[in-house]
Amino acid sequence: MSRPALSPRTVLAPYGRIFGVPGAARFSLAGWLGRVPAATTGLGTVLMVSGQTGSYALAGAVSGTFALAYSVGSPQWARAVDRRGQGPVLRRSMVAFLLLGVGFVAAVVLSAPVWSWFALAALTGASTPNIGSLVRSRWAESLGEQGQRQTAFAFESVVDEVVFVVGPPVVTLLAALVSPPAGFLTGLATGVIGGTWLARQVATEPPVHPREPAGRHPRRWAALSPTVLVVKVASLAVGGVFGAMDVVVVGFARAEGQPALAGVALAAYAAGSLVAGLVYGLARLPGTLEVRFAGCSLLFGVAAQLLLAVGSLPVLVAVAFVAGLSIAPTLVSGMSLVEARVPRSALTESLSWTTAGLTAGVTAGAALAGLAVDGWGARAAFVVPAVAAALSAVLAVSGVALLRRGNAVGDPLPAGPAGRES
Predict the structure, then answer these.
(1) What burial class does residue 112 get, using C-beta atoms within 10 Å of its C-beta: 0-12 exposed, 13-18 middle, 19+ buried?
(2) How far apart are CA 226 and CA 112, in angstroms?
């Protein structure tokens, strides 16, 4: 007896089930808009500063400053969210993000002293909450099964990649056809709209967890547990790949005489991740969460070595898509590992620390890639993201080995909100 053919509706049924949760579609869409700056501020800053000065090193340094400040500031917003709720904190942060972001653009366009560019980039980055961690916290609160949460986290990774598919070409075209700051400002406005909308959705907010009594700090230790630290450290190197790609791809496209195609290449990188994210969300893979994270990280490190073969823009687009296939599984497996190993009272902060590691790595990657493009040329500079990806694989595999050795003698932290395992 033959098996019935699988229809797209049947295959995608797990995604349909998670969106049966009341309010899920609204908070996910708001988060979709709210995270647009994640795909536009880095590239937008590079295009704006390099267009104003002609220096990729300076552009990478300013962009990296923005990302570094974000990596420090976003976990503080997340801690406030865990204690006071998403709505009140988001409303304040969105006002600060809008005002400081406009001030940053004005400083660059009006040729204010360069030190003020760094200062305003830092303040703007520090005012930016991690919208993705807020949305994932809502999913974790709404869904009871680990498999459903994996599907939801994979979907959010797909949302990330859709933003990164659409964002870079739009930013590049706006910078080329309108003005260099246009892409940055468009992303800024979209992010503020999404964040404000999310703040208004009170019904699906996770519960508030008040401040711990004096002398007790279990939530902070949970947010900085060995699992979170392993994922964060590996994410530093992954972020180095992303930061370097922004700068090197822009430099390579300009060197090839087709600057508008930089966004296409970056979109292809994100498109590969989008496809892989959809598949990963449907898969029920064997092995523990630690093993999945290590395996996906190893694949990410190997796939990025294809960048060393890039010699033309068509090859870059193809290689970027193939290498991008490993991104979403790596990020989702890391997020799932963290979500399953920390208590709910520290979940938003823990997820934010994980992403903070990613964006801190963007700082180093963007700065090193800017120096490499100026010193070696854009083609040779692809060694920066390739080495960073290899380092991320080494850190992830080594960290998971240490975690498994530690778990053999007992893990002092709860495995999830009620001690559940995956």
Answers:
(1) middle
(2) 44
Is 378 part of a structural domain of the chain?
Answer: yes
Residue 16 lies in a domain: no
HSE value, Cβ hemisphere, 13 Å, CA-based, for 251? 27
The H or E element spanning position 330 is helix 327-341
Residues in CB range of 92: below 8 A, 6 or more apart:
none
Q: Determine how many CB atoms are found less than 10 A away from the CB of residue 207.
A: 9
Inter-residue contact 366 to 60 (CB < 8 Å): yes
d(C-alpha 380, C-alpha 383), whole Å: 6
Residue 421 lies in a domain: no
What SS3 class is residue 221? helix
* CB of 226 closer than 8 Å to CB of 405: no
Q: Which two tokens stand for residue 206?
A: 């996770």
Q: Which one-letter amino acid corresponds to residue 294?
A: A
Residues 6+ apart with CB under 8 A from 305: 386, 389, 390
Reply yes or no on whether the pLDDT at 144 is more than 70: yes
pLDDT score of 415: 38
- Residue 48 CA to residue 63 CA, distance in Å, equals 10
Structural domain of 115:
23-210+218-407
Residue 175's closest CA among 45, 24, 8, 21?
A: 45
Is residue 416 a part of any domain in this protein? no
- Integer Cα distance of 334 and 290 in angstroms: 8
Give pLDDT tens digits for 154-206: 788 778 777 776 777 788 788 878 888 898 999 999 999 999 999 999 888 88
- 3-state class (DSSP) for residue 131: helix
Element (H, E) at 169: helix 146-177
User: How far from 213 is each of 175, 218, 336, 346, CA to CA, in Å?
Assistant: 51, 10, 29, 15
Please tell me the total count of domains within the chain. Answer: 1
199: domain CATH number?
1.20.1250.20
End-to-end CA distance of the chain: 35
CA distances from 295 to 95, 161, 390 (A): 41, 21, 13
**What's the predicted TM-score (pTM) here?**
0.73
